[in-house]
Design a protein that fits this description.
The structure holds 2 protein chains of 2 kinds. By secondary structure, chain A is mostly beta strands. Chain A is built from no helices and 11 strands. The N and C termini of chain A lie far apart (36 Å). Chain B is mainly beta. Helices cover 0% and strands 43% of the residues of chain B. In chain B, the strands form 2 sheets. Chain B has a 5-stranded mixed β-sheet, with no helix packed on it. In chain B, strands 2-7-6-5 form a 4-stranded antiparallel β-sheet, with no helix packed on it. The chains are: A mainly beta, B mainly beta. The interface between A and B is medium-sized, with 28 and 25 residues.
Chain lengths: 115, 111
């Protein structure tokens, strides 16, 4: 069964460093998403991406964040200068279509720890 | 703001049906109801979704009221592995159809 894969599963970084979280969406999917979940809190939407452009983003997704689809298979989230409060699980998701009609499938997440 | 209301927690005996309710009184038009679950800190797992008709798949059934203001997710024979947080989500047009997760219902399946 196709699945969304994320690497690494756990990343530890020092405050102020840049991190790149990687995702391989399901191959025929066209819409891609990043979510995060701070420990003990709810899953929060960060950004959606389609046709090489951001289609929606939340207030959390500020100038420190960027997304990219560098090739035909990867989808990345970059945090330019990490802060302690960026420590969280980051989930990538993908869906075949946008809108409300089709489901999104999530990866198992990358646990980011900023020290 | 998730705009859905779910009980904070529920218990269910193993082998029995688990019925998880959700209120979404502000739903309108072509906005679908989705159910996901999250086991520990794993990625959210898609369960089922529907618009106005009842839906069934290998995991669960979704019953949507005629006025679409509420729905119930049914796990017909709950197992211990169904212990998880269950999220009822409406993909609202005014939020770009994003999956906005609320606090969900923590379902505990007991032996």
């Amino acid at each position: 069964e196709p699945e969304v894969t994320q690497t690494p599963s756990h990343q530890v970084t020092q405050m102020g460093q840049e991190v790149i979280l990687r995702c391989v969406p399901i191959s025929n999917h066209l819409y891609f998403y990043w979510y995060r979940q701070i420990l003990g809190q709810k899953v929060e939407f960060l950004v959606s991406f389609y046709n090489n452009e951001i289609s929606e983003k939340s207030e959390i997704f500020d100038d420190q964040f960027s997304v990219e689809r560098p090739d035909g298979s990867n989808f990345t989230l970059k945090i330019r200068s990490t802060k302690l409060e960026d420590s969280a699980m980051y989930f990538c998701a993908s869906s075949e279509e946008g809108g409300s009609v089709t489901e999104a499938f999530f990866g198992q997440g990358t646990r980011l720890t900023v020290v | 703001d998730a705009k859905t209301t779910q009980p904070t927690s529920m218990d269910c005996a193993e082998g029995r049906a688990a019925n998880l309710p959700c209120n979404h009184s502000t739903i309108s038009g072509n906005e679908y109801v989705y159910w996901y679950r999250q086991i520990h800190s794993q990625g959210p797992q898609y369960i089922i979704h529907g618009l106005k008709n009842n839906e069934t798949n290998e995991m669960a059934s979704l019953i949507i009221t005629e006025d679409r203001k509420s729905s119930t997710l049914i796990l017909p024979h709950a197992t211990l592995r169904d212990t998880a947080v269950y999220y009822c989500i409406v993909r609202y047009r005014d939020s770009g159809y994003a999956l906005n997760f609320g606090k969900g219902t923590s379902l505990l399946v007991t032996p």
